[in-house]
Amino acid sequence: MKAKAFDIRTLDHVAIHVSELEKSAAWYQRVLGLERIQPTEWGPFPALMVAADGTGVALFPTHGDSPGRLPEGEVIRANHYAFRVDREDFESVKDHLKALDIKYDSQDHHFFHSIYIYDPDDHRVEITTQVRAFTEEKRARR
């Protein structure tokens, strides 16, 4: 078997289309505590980034003349994307969402516990924490 050429460490970012850049950026800042990143070096780039600790969400306008826009009538949707939090913070996430009056669903995935919410454009966002370690036996199961 060929050795891996490189190791993936973490999710860097996801890029999504949104109907209103400013509204979506504000939601990600308020609900998930992400920081808005828009360096002047990017120039008049039509998208913007919100991020935390090296993982971000690139927000692209759905319509207009931007290079990232969707062609008219085309719909592309990801199932969801996930942010990981420490176990100690998981209950705080629930409290925060309740305080913001944001409805969420919880799921126990045995190794992970997850909360699912929706952003203003109905993108499904998962906030997850690992509660049990994967053993080599469990990782290898196919």
TrEMBL record:
Source organism superkingdom: Bacteria
Alphabetized InterPro entries for the sequence: Glyas_Bleomycin-R_OHBP_Dase, Glyas_Fos-R_dOase_dom, GlyoxalaseI/FosfomycinResist, VOC_core
PANTHER family: GLYOXALASE FAMILY PROTEIN
Protein name: Glyoxalase
Domain VOC, chain residue ranges per copy: 10-130
